[in-house]
Amino acid sequence: MRSAAAAFAWEFGWPRRWLFVALGLYLVALGLLKPVFLGSGATLDLGDGYVAFGTVPFSFTFMYFIAVFSFGLNGDLAARQSIYPARLFTLPVSSAELARWPMVYGLTAMAMLWIIASLAARWPMGLDLPLVWPGVMLGVVLAWTQVFMWMPYGFRGLRVVLAVSVLITLDTLVILAIEYKLSEAALVAFLAPQLPLAYYCACLVVARARRGVVPDWSVFSRTRAREAARSLSPFRSAAAAQLWFEWRRNGRSLPVLVAMVLPFELGTLFITGFGSTSYVFEVLIVALFMPILMAGFTAATVNKANPFARDAYGVTPFTATKPITTTALIAAKLKMAMWSTFAAWIVVLAFIAIGFSWSGADAVLIERWHSFADQVGLPRAIVAAGLILGGLMLGTWLMLVQGMFIGLTGREWLIKTSGFVWLVFFMALGPTLEAISESTDALRWLWDNWTIFPAILVLLKMIAAIAIARRLSHSGLISDRAIVAGAAGWAAVVFVLYGVFVWWADTLLLPRHVFLLIAILAVPLVRISAAPLALDWNRHR
Amino acid sequence: MSDAVIDIENLTRRFGAKTALNAVSLSLPRGAVYGLVGANGAGKTTLIKHILGLLRAESGSVRIFGLDPVADPVAVLSRIGYLSEENDLPGWMRVDELIRYSRAFYKNWDDAYAEELRQAFTLDPSAKIKTLSKGQKSRAGLLVALAYRPELLVLDEPSSGLDPIVRRDILGAVMRTIADEGRTVLFSSHLLDEVEQVADHVTMIRQGTIVMSAPLDEIKASHSGRTLDEIFVSHVGSHT
């Protein structure tokens, strides 16, 4: 390896060779789809679900390239210091070269990604996509992301805010340009000059980072820290201290992420005008599901790297050596997830209220609410809204707990596999539902037998719960009395929920035992009760 | 029940094909300073992690104050002060927050002593841990390990990579702990002159096996007054 270019190529390529091989195989399989299964003359019928087969891996690869070539996987995104790896600053090359090679390889990777994506769209799917400007757009997004990642900042967290704001503005400008039917040449003329400009900025910020320049604008926060230092009162208990620790470490991520993303989502009500009722509900649904989606991202940060563990996940010795029971440690994590969920939902409800009322879209919601309440009666309408809101909040909390639980196993392969399984599930869901909806036989069979699915899930849940209860009892982490009390409490909540379901929607079309199955599935049991076992394993390996 | 603070019998631990500890037996009575020396990868940290209950004994037994540290972590850890070489204190905490957080876990936490140590170590209460130098981080870790006057102080390579002034602070802390009657210190180190300065008893470990464990005076007497450094090289085969 005799040049900086070759060294950087190795740095980016070699550790990820298997991922590139897997992606290549996937593309080959996608390419063979038409000649092998459909015949060479056929055109692939593009349902929304089938698009997922193409768009999800390409979106994933795009995001992955952004993370890899900006070194975003290497450090703390919120830190004031540059993300650019400090170990590379000692290489005997100029700062311009340090900026150049990650940009060159990143732009090349993005260009190849778009060429392959557009070819895959033209053949076998028969879609006529523009060839040049989207590729340039991907490159511009990467180049500016690199600049923002490598720049040192005066405030902690400013990098994330600035990068998200500028990239979304860029995205919106391009969407508006498409909306106003600008030619491909005009779009390229708008985008392409940004590449040398971003390169120039990257050279400057890398040079600053290399000199160790980190501006400090936190005079106010330092004063505030000194004031706070004078007024610290002791914690009531070790459990309270641990809850504070968990909240400070992980609890604020979800509400902050939601608060950063929601304004852009709700802002579309002002930019495009809400026009149709369906659009208002689309925006509302996306806003309501935002915390669950964001919880999936923040879950990864719930577990911090353990410098002592051989893998990257685990309980740090700082926490593991505190004289506190494993059950109390897990209780603090679960409570933190609960408070984080509440905080995120306060943000969501406040933003929805402000966004919809200021844009005038609330009139559509109010009209639909009155119509719904007239149809089912006000008490049922209120309970339905409560159940939906409660379900979404529970879903958010469960996503946080699930991420924490998987991370607590401390097994990197499990953490990565679960992400892959989730991706595959997401990709397969669309095509599967589409195939089912197009098959009369499948729909008929499902209509007659669909209750078998919740029944199987309930059976699996019960088997898992019994196995976990036995392990918990055997481990001595939780007393038998507490296990029985927990099971009784869980059963009581299930029966209350079952009663609400029966009261709300008692109909001859659905047998009552189906409501019971749904109630059993809705109330969390297995993941929560398994959490102490996972933490215990991780704490005492 | 034995009076030993640490009582380990036939402890074996494997990580895949590598045997990190091989039938280690060790009994350390109360009220002395024990130096644990060995080359890198000899098994010192693995042994300490078993003492703290961070690793479960695969075979053999570990008893600290007569208790199993895995089965009863609260009873054991509330009596142990621990400072690790890695020093994994959370960078986002301020020094005063670290003190406030740590004091919640220990009934014997001594506020006056903690403040005395903070001043002696010149730690700014409003400073974030991540902004501290390596030496200052070690001092912060030492503060929260000492402020509840633990019965057993465990220091895993505490002086590694630190300047002489911080090393002096650490040795001073060891001395202070010894001065409190009946307290015990176990520290691993590759700085043999340091071990020689403070240890009453030295345990040498090589490739997961204890090759020597005896009072320092006895070791020196039986090796014709040679330095610990020379004795170490002759038993372990290379310098740390």
Give a quick set of tags describing it.
heterodimer; A: 541 residues; mainly alpha; 22 helices; 76% helix; 0% strand; B: 240 residues; alpha/beta; six-stranded mixed β-sheet; three-stranded antiparallel β-sheet; 9 helices; 9 strands; globular
Query: What's the gyration radius of chain B in Å?
Result: 18 Å
State the helical fraction of chain B. 25-40%
User: Rg of chain A from C-alpha positions?
Assistant: 26 Å
Proportion of residues in extended strands of chain B: 25-35%
Assembly state? heterodimer
Number of strands of chain B: 9
Q: How far apart, in Å, are the first and last alpha carbons of chain B?
A: 36 Å
Count of alpha and pi helical runs of chain B: 9
How many angstroms does the end-to-end distance of chain A come to? 41 Å
Q: Overall mean pLDDT score of chain B? A: 83
String of helices and strands of chain B? EEEHEHEHHHEHEHEEHH
Number of strands of chain A: 0
Overall 3D form of chain B: globular
The SSE string of chain A, one letter per element, is HHHHHHHHHHHHHHHHHHHHHH
Q: Unreliable segments of chain A (pLDDT under 50, ≥5 consecutive)? A: 301-313
User: How many helical stretches of chain A?
Assistant: 22
Question: Can you lay out the helices and strands and say which pair or pack?
Answer:
The complex is a heterodimer of chains A (541) and B (240).
Chain A: H1 4-13, H2 17-38, H3 48-69, H4 95-122, H5 133-150, H6 158-179, H7 184-191, H8 194-210, H9 219-230, H10 238-251, H11 253-271, H12 277-298, H13 317-320, H14 326-359, H15 362-376, H16 378-408, H17 412-438, H18 440-449, H19 452-475, H20 480-504, H21 512-522, H22 526-539
Chain B: E1 6-15, E2 18-28, E3 33-38, H1 44-52, E4 59-64, H2 73-77, E5 80-83, H3 95-103, H4 111-120, H5 134-146, E6 152-156, H6 164-179, E7 184-188, H7 192-198, E8 201-206, E9 209-215, H8 216-222, H9 228-236
Helix pairs in contact in B: 5-6
Could you characterize the architecture of this molecule?
The complex is a heterodimer of chains A (541) and B (240). Chain A has helices at residues 4-13, 17-38, 48-69, 95-122, 133-150, 158-179, 184-191, 194-210, 219-230, 238-251, 253-271, 277-298, 317-320, 326-359, 362-376, 378-408, 412-438, 440-449, 452-475, 480-504, 512-522, 526-539. By secondary structure, chain A is an all-alpha fold. The model of chain A is unreliable at 301-313 (pLDDT under 50). By secondary structure, chain B is α/β, with parallel strands linked by helices. Chain B has a six-stranded mixed beta sheet, with helices on both faces. A three-stranded antiparallel beta sheet of chain B has the order 2-1-4. In chain B, strand 6 (152-156), helix 6 and strand 7 (184-188) form a beta-alpha-beta unit. In chain B, helix 5 (134-146) runs parallel beside helix 6 (164-179). The model of chain B has no long low-confidence stretch (mean pLDDT 83). The interface between A and B is medium-sized, with 34 and 36 residues.
